[in-house]
Amino acid sequence: MSGRQLWRGGHLVTLAQAQGWGLVPDGALLTEGGQIRWVGPLADLPQDLRVGLDAEVDLQGALVTPGLIDPHTHLVYGGERSAEFEMRLQGASYEDIARAGGGIRSTVAATRAADEASLRASALARARALMDEGLTTLEVKSGYGLSLDDEARCLRVARSLSELGITVRTTYLGAHALPPEFDGRPDDYVDAVCAWMPTLKDAGLIDAVDAFCERIAFSPQQTRRVFETARRLGLPVKLHAEQLSDQGGAALAADFQALSCDHLEYLSDGGIQAMAAAGTVAVLLPGAFYFLRETKLPPVEALRRAGVPIALATDHNPGSSPGLSLLLMMNMACTFFRMTPEEALRGLTVHSARALGLPDRGQLVAGQRADFCVWDAAHPRELAYYFGRNPRRATVLQGRAHEP
Ligand code: NIG
Ligand code: FE
Questions:
Q1: Are 159 and 169 in contact (CB under 8 A)?
Q2: Order of strands across the sheet that contains 310-312
Q3: What tens-digit pLDDT sequence spans the chain (404 residues)?
Q4: pTM above 0.95, yes or no
Q5: Which of 44, 94, 160, 391 has the fewest other C-beta atoms within 10 Å?
Q6: Do 74 and 214 sit in the same domain of this protein?
C-alpha cells in the first residue's frame, strides 16, 4: 500500500477497451492505497487530484503497461530433466518417456527427496527470474508431490513466494500423474486426490483445482470426479486439456465453468464452442509447444472467431517447458501461433488475469490494482519483437516501485 503518488510523463498502454492498445502519450497515473485512482493525459488531471501528493515520479517518456501475469506454472519442484531432453533429441517422445516411468514421475521422486528449504530456494530463484521481465502476479501448481504431505509442502512453498511482493495464486494439481504407490490403481488415486482436497483447502492452500486429462494421465471420467469434488467445495477449476490428443477435456471443463483450459493444440470445434459458451479462457503455452517440438498448432483463428479470450503463460516446468521468459512467450506466440503483438500483451495481462479469476488487474484503468511495468521502449509491439533483450526499467507493485 502507499500514499497518493503521481506517475507522469509515461507512454501508457492501457488496454482499456476490448480492442486496441489504448495508448495515452504523455500520460499520467495517480495511485493511492495500492490502486490506480486516475489515468489519462496529464493535461486532463483534475485540479483537486493534484494536491496532497506524497510523491511524484517523472517516467521520462518510458512505456508503461499493466504488470505481467503468468497464469500457468509448475514452479515448485526438485531436480531437472536435461537427460530426458537428450533422449527426446535422439527420438524418444514425451509420451514414451512418461510410459517408461520417467517424465513427471522422475520429478515427483526428486521433489519428495528435497527438503522444504531447497524447494523454496529454487522456486524463489525462478520467481525472481520471471520478475526480471515484469511479472507481478504468478500462478503456481502443485503436482510433483502427489501425497497429501508433499502436495501441502509444495503449495506452502508456492504461497511463500508472495514475500517477493507479487501476488501468488496456488492451484491444486494432485491429478497430474499416478504416483508409484498407486500403480495399477488409478481410481483409488483419484479418490485420494479428492479426499485430500478439503484438508488442503482448509489449510488455505488452494485457489483453484487443475487436472491433466490425457491418455498418459487421467481420463475424462476421472477428471470429472476431481471437478465434482472441487465444485462441492466451491473451488474453481482449470484443465490441462488436449495437449497431446483430443480427449474432450475442454468441453468437460466448460461444463464446470472452468476458468481456463490450457495447452489446447488438439482442441476440437466442439471444445471451442463449449469454452465460448462458458466464458472459459484459452491459455496457450508456446514454450511447451516449442520444447516438445509440437507441430500441431492450437486453433487460434477459430478461438478468435468464437470470441474465446486467449491468454499466454510460460508453463514453466522441468519436462515440457523449462524456460523463464515471459517476453519470449510473447515473441513465440507471434512467430509460432500468428498472434498479433497486441494479442500477446493482452494474453499476459487482461486475459491472464481472467484465467485466474482476478478481474481487479490486467489493464491501466481507475479502480484496478496499481501493478504496472515501465519499459525502455517506444512502442508496445517491441515487447513481442525482441528476444533475449530485456527492456524492463522498473516494476510497480501496488503503487510501490521495485527497481530491477
Ligand atoms: O503442462 N502436461 C502436463 N504437465 C506439464 C508438464 C509436466 C512435466 O513434464 O513435468 C505441462 O506441460
Ligand atoms: Fe502445465
A1: no
A2: 238-241, 260-263, 281-284, 310-312
A3: 568 999 999 999 999 999 999 999 999 999 999 999 999 999 999 999 999 999 999 999 999 999 999 999 999 999 999 999 999 999 999 999 988 889 999 999 999 999 999 999 999 999 999 999 999 999 999 999 999 999 999 999 999 999 999 999 999 999 999 999 999 999 999 999 999 999 999 999 999 999 999 999 999 999 999 999 999 999 999 999 999 999 999 999 999 999 999 999 999 999 999 999 999 999 999 999 999 999 999 999 999 999 999 999 999 999 999 999 999 999 999 999 999 999 999 999 999 999 999 999 999 999 999 999 999 999 999 999 999 999 999 999 999 998 65
A4: yes
A5: 44
A6: yes
Please tell me whether residues 74 and 62 are part of one structural domain.
no
Same domain, 40 and 147: no
Count structural domains, the chain: 2
Residue 213, ligand 1, Cβ within 6 A: no
Three cell numbers written together for 285 = 503455452
Query: What ipTM was estimated for this complex?
Result: 0.97
Which residue type does 132 have? D
Tell me how far the alpha carbon of residue 23 lies from the centroid of ligand 2, in angstroms.
33
* 280 C-beta closer than 6 A to ligand 1: no
CB neighbourhood size of 394 (10 A):
18
- Residue-range definition of the domain harbouring residue 44: 4-66+363-402
For residue 386, the domain's CATH number is: 2.30.40.10
Known binding positions for N-formimidoyl-L-glutamate: 144, 317, 319
Rounded Cα distance between 368 and 323, Å, is 29
- Distances in whole angstroms, Cα of residue 153 to Cα of each of 75, 161, 191, 234: 13, 13, 20, 22
Nearest to 300 by CA among 270, 330, 336: 336
**Residue owning the nearest CA to atom 3 of ligand 1:** 212
